[in-house]
């Protein structure tokens, strides 16, 4: 059984969660300082156990003044280790966990294409291709918001479908490396994949879908307060109303696959700076809609739609 742990402010606190380092299959490091080195802390916890690392610069760790937080996915035995150059992957129960990828060469579209191509190379090591992707999360800067539609071409060319992954796009103004305009996270799964879509036609022409089910796990896209029919952003300036709309949308997608909010095991919530003050008022909504979710909350620089205060990326496991 895969365990999703919420981000904690420091590797040293992972010992309190009871997770064994040898069971870890993926780590996400949310860093509030781009130059922060975590090599020593990571080695102290993981020892000789090597795992794929996703590094995500953020404005802040919500609810903490820590310089970083670390979220862990674990599976008994830690799965199978695969390598390709300096990159490592782990495969556990048919799920392929990858590191985040980026380059510093080329313009925005070139970098996005490189990231997708590199992911394809990593998946090939696991005997899979891009049709096995279940979720992508890209991190770009606010300054590139106008350029963001240019990622559409490489996605159309390199994500052939018919099953496209869930996707999220988050704006972070401090790059993962100097010159990197894009950083991309991805996860893949072997076996049959099923798209979950409650009938929202806007996804018919997009290179991502509301959710993808692989076995008992549902990987949902990032959800903001966007009307799926009109494609208009809703509830400008009202975080509670946006949150209620987002959570209801997530439950609508889950219901199309026979799941409920109680099946959600993990939520990653990206808050804009403008949302931080009001975020405590959304806690009751999370507990109502997703009572079993491990919640990670971080402050990003902005979101792709300027009106959005929150984007939520859920994972559910249907029992």
Automatic annotation (TrEMBL):
Pfam families attached to this UniProt entry: Ribonuc_L-PSP (PF01042)
InterPro entries: RutC-like_sf, YjgF/YER057c/UK114
Stored PANTHER family: BLR7761 PROTEIN, YJGH FAMILY PROTEIN
Protein name, per record: Enamine deaminase RidA (YjgF/YER057c/UK114 family)
């Amino acid at each position: 059984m895969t365990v999703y742990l919420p981000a904690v402010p420091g590797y040293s606190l992972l010992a309190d969660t009871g997770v064994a380092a040898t069971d870890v299959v993926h780590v996400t490091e949310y860093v509030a300082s781009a130059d922060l080195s975590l090599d020593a802390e990571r080695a102290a916890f993981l020892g000789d156990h090597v795992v794929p690392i996703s590094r995500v610069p953020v404005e802040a760790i919500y609810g903490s003044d820590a310089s970083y937080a670390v979220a862990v996915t674990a599976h008994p035995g830690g799965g199978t280790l695969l390598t390709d150059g300096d990159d490592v992957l782990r495969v556990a129960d048919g799920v392929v966990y990858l590191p985040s990828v980026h380059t510093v060469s080329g313009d925005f579209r070139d970098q996005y294409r490189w990231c997708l191509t590199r992911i394809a190379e990593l998946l090939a090591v696991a005997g899979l291709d891009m049709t096995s992707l279940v979720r992508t999360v890209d991190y770009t800067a606010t300054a590139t918001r106008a350029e963001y539609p240019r990622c559409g071409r490489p996605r159309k060319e390199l994500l052939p479908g018919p099953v496209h992954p869930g996707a999220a796009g988050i704006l972070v103004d401090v790059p993962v490396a100097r010159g990197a305009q894009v950083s991309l996270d991805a996860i893949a799964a072997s076996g049959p994949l099923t798209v979950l879509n409650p009938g929202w036609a806007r996804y018919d022409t997009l290179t991502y879908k509301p959710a993808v089910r692989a076995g008992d796990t549902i990987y949902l896209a990032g959800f903001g307060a966007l009307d799926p029919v009109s494609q208009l952003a809703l509830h400008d300036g009202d975080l509670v109303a946006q949150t209620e709309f987002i959570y209801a949308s997530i439950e609508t997608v889950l219901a199309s696959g026979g799941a409920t909010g109680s099946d959600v095991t993990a939520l990653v919530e990206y808050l804009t700076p403008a949302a931080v003050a009001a975020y405590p008022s959304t806690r009751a909504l999370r507990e109502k809609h997703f009572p079993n979710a491990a919640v990670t909350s971080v402050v990003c620089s902005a979101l792709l739609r300027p009106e959005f205060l929150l984007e939520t990326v859920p994972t559910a496991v249907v029992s």
